[in-house]
Amino acid sequence: MPSVRDALRLHGGAVDLAGADTRATPHWFGGKQEALADIAAMEPRLAELQERLYAQAAGGGSRKRLLLVLQGMDTSGKGGVVKHVIGQFNPSGCHIHAFKAPTREELAHPFLWRVRRAVPEPGIIGIFDRSHYEDVLIARVRGIVPRTVWARRYATINRFEQSLHDDGVTIVKVFLHISYAEQRARLLERLENPDKHWKFGPGDIDERALWPDYEEAYEAVLQKCTTDAAPWYVVPADRKWYRNWAISRLLLEHLEELDPRYPPAHFDVETERKRLLET
Amino acid sequence: MPSVRDALRLHGGAVDLAGADTRATPHWFGGKQEALADIAAMEPRLAELQERLYAQAAGGGSRKRLLLVLQGMDTSGKGGVVKHVIGQFNPSGCHIHAFKAPTREELAHPFLWRVRRAVPEPGIIGIFDRSHYEDVLIARVRGIVPRTVWARRYATINRFEQSLHDDGVTIVKVFLHISYAEQRARLLERLENPDKHWKFGPGDIDERALWPDYEEAYEAVLQKCTTDAAPWYVVPADRKWYRNWAISRLLLEHLEELDPRYPPAHFDVETERKRLLET
Asked: For residue A118, what are the CA distances in angstroms to A13, A121, B101, B116, B148?
């Protein structure tokens, strides 16, 4: 059966980001209103699958969990996706981790140190807003570490993700793909609204000037770090409604494949009912 | 102006939990449907106040933040409140912390050690699902530490909360008050639905047998640890719609008093607009 996973998944061949249509709506054949209705229809199924995942770990000792990794250029909508995803689940079973510039303590450790500490526990849905991929993106583009260092990290990341996979983590890596023009429109919106000024810094335009370098660094990531254990999905993200629909659908397909089950009762239901009714 | 804070706040006098009506709806004069409508009407205001709080810390160096502390007997709805609160805010600006039985590492430190680490950063809305109060509740009822130890903790907690208050933390402590009969109904519901069996353990009925001891321990907490820096609010919680309404209202009143403001731009808007338009 065709799925949004098949439609968005990379397989390791050459990637041409500039040539891809960021307004496309792969695997969706309706418009915005129908997509919003479909998102609403997915919500109870997502919520139930999450509860089963949580219950299976809490009551049954399962190690299964899900990790959504979000990457994309500035303004690509990572924060919007976090809000969207949490809205569809029980937030108590989710763990959001936003990766900022490494602290002094983090810099004193290998680059995956802070990432390992943020991996969701069994039963939990983790969301990484940025991730270890920054260590081959900004670190490469800005020359924070020499080439000999970042060039080795792709293989290190693949091994790391394989080990997570082997420990029950379903990894869903999403690149939110916006166009150069769309980023300009979104930055302009921030400048034109005084209530959004705090989200803007002149550094955002300096980073934007490096767009071709980031594009190249992303292409390397998408090509080198798509594995069977943890493939990349490229989500066209100029249209926020499609972006959200695609994320919900990706999560639904992965959770359905995981097929978590409520654990059986570890007690005799009749006995406990009688005990309770006596109180 | 009368407020829900005034209606629910304790002032340090004797507390009689068994005598209080857990189906009451203090400061609300409508029914369920009107309450749900009022909750929906509060949502945009809550979301904007949260964004301002976040922005003020991110762009203006403010230390202000809010910490909602949730306590209550088993099945009183702490998890439901977490879900409700997160639904009204941007989850990226919230930090949920659920306190479980202390780990070996946590037990090797003073009881507030793990709590200090979970205090929200400036700009963040923190939610404690259980808290340091467990150290004078279950620790007292179950005799986990001797009386001489737990008896000193009330004053320690008050000093700790005063120090948080002095560092910009607005503390909103809520006791979700359900009746003994309501707990029975909720436990029975879990027993009667196989999909809820994982939430139940025979230990829940053992704990329930200690209801009067917990009630006494809660009364001590509510009396000794209501301070000007961090008063307790008692929310009648048999009716979930009233519970959610009261929580939203409490948060709204506290955030409005905080009155967070967007920080001014640290750059020249015209210069930046020109730079952006050249890209």
From this structure: 30, 9, 21, 19, 38
Q: Which residues of B touch A80 (CB under 8 A)?
A: none
The whole-angstrom distance between B198's CA and the closest CA on chain A is 6
Nearest to A185 by CA among A24, A36, A77, A79: A77
Query: Which residue in B92, B61, B109 sits closest to B260, CA to CA?
Result: B61
Contact A265 B194 (CB under 8 A): yes
Whole-number Å distance between alpha carbons of B126 and B66: 6
Rg of chain B (C-alpha set): 21
> In whole angstroms, what is the distance from residue A51 CA to residue A56 CA?
8
Any chain A CB within 8 A of the CB of B90? yes
Q: How far is CA A85 from CA A3, A33, A96, B220, B259, in A?
A: 19, 19, 10, 41, 29
The CA distance from B239 to A103, in Å, is 45
Give how far B228 is from chain A: nearest CA, Å: 30
Measure CB to CB from residue B86 to each of A60, A91, A191 and give the nearest one: A91
Which residues of chain B from 134 to 163 reach within 8 Å of chain A, CB to CB?
Answer: none
pLDDT tens digit sequence for A22-45: 999 999 999 999 999 999 999 999
Of A125, A127, A102, nearest to A112 by C-alpha is A102
Residue A99 contacts residue A126 (beta carbons within 8 Å): no
Nearest in space to B174 (alpha carbons), one of B131, B207, B123: B131
pLDDT, tens only, A104-156: 999 999 999 999 999 999 999 999 999 999 999 999 999 999 999 999 999 99
Which residue of chain A is at minimal alpha-carbon distance from B209?
A279
**Three-class DSSP category at A125:** strand
Apex A93 CA angle, B236 and A241, nearest 5? 105
What amino acid is encoded at B192 in this protein?
E
Q: Where are the beta strands (DSSP E) in chain B?
A: 65-72, 94-98, 125-129, 169-177, 232-236
